[in-house]
Amino acid sequence: MASLRELQRSFAAALRDPGVDCPVIPAGRLDIYRGNRQHNFRGALELTFPVLHRRVGDEFFAQLAHHYQERFPSRSGDLHWAGRDFGEFLAVHLAGGDYAWLADLARLEWARQCSAVEAVAAPLGPDALAAFAPEQLEDVRFSLQPSLRLLESPFPVVSVWLANQSENAPPVDQSLGSERGMTLARADGVEVARLAPDLFSYLSALHGGATLGEAMVRAGLDGPRLTQVLGYSFGEQLVTGVSLAPGS
Fold it and tell me: What is the mean pLDDT of residues 186-196?
């Protein structure tokens, strides 16, 4: 007699492959389970990627969800994580075609979902820098909001996402070219915003552990522009901690 684990494995295999039988579930009932599995999986993706769903329509989205589920079946009872690999799947599945940009749109929407499940930490104001001598400032490291996600794309996917927050949004001109953006949890939801190239480089450097001086160099900031991006960092409540780099 098959063990419980063996029965569970045969049931899971039969759900994924109509050509596989399960000894304890009639074929007709298996079809119902398979249909529910596909419906729930697609529904989770529609909730996670609403703009992508809107731009491609029900039929094409259902096809993408089907192929994605075959390649990346959910292995968790929490369908929130079902879309984790959707952007990477689309990058391969749509490579070289007119819809290749959808992979980065999916990455943006997944970043938004990841931001949504992070806590909003207490922010610091610019007065936090007063604890350091002027000659120490270039060696200061910033801790940023845990929900901050940064995304760079050769396509205008941030503009696409922002435009599609209203019904019947027209297509965004793809000739607008590359964009950089961030997603960030706020008390009232998740913000999606475009970032200037130098601001993106600066925040990316800080996010990766660079000091203020290193981030300034990587982003090519002069003194006045550094003042502006520092103002943005504190004004948008991105900074949650400041400390000197070891050995400074």
Answer: 96
Give yes or no for a contact between 44 and 82, defined as CB atoms under 8 angstroms apart.
yes
State the sign of the Cα–Cα–Cα–Cα dihedral 209, 213, 218, 219: positive
Using DSSP, state whether 247 is helix, strand or coil: coil
**The token pair that represents 157 in the structure block:** 């996917």
Angle between helix 86-93 and helix 102-116 axes, rounded to 10 deg: 180
Is 64 buried (19+), middle (13-18) or exposed (0-12) by CB count in 10 A? Answer: buried
Q: Closest Cα partner for 124 from 233, 245, 244?
A: 233
Give dist(CA 38, CA 76) in Å, integer: 15
CA distance 31 to 20: 12
The answer to whether 182 and 199 are in contact (CB under 8 A) is no
Of 19 and 192, more confident: 192
Nearest-angstrom CA–CA distance, 63 and 120: 36
In whole angstroms, what is the distance from residue 214 CA to residue 203 CA?
Answer: 11
Q: How many whole angstroms separate alpha carbon 19 and alpha carbon 196? A: 52
Q: Which residues make beta-bridge pairs with 14? A: none
Could you tell me which of 175, 248, 179 has the C-alpha nearest to residue 211? 248
- For 100-141, the pLDDT digits (tens) are 999 999 999 999 999 999 999 999 999 999 999 999 999 999
Which structure tokens are listed for 48? 């996670």
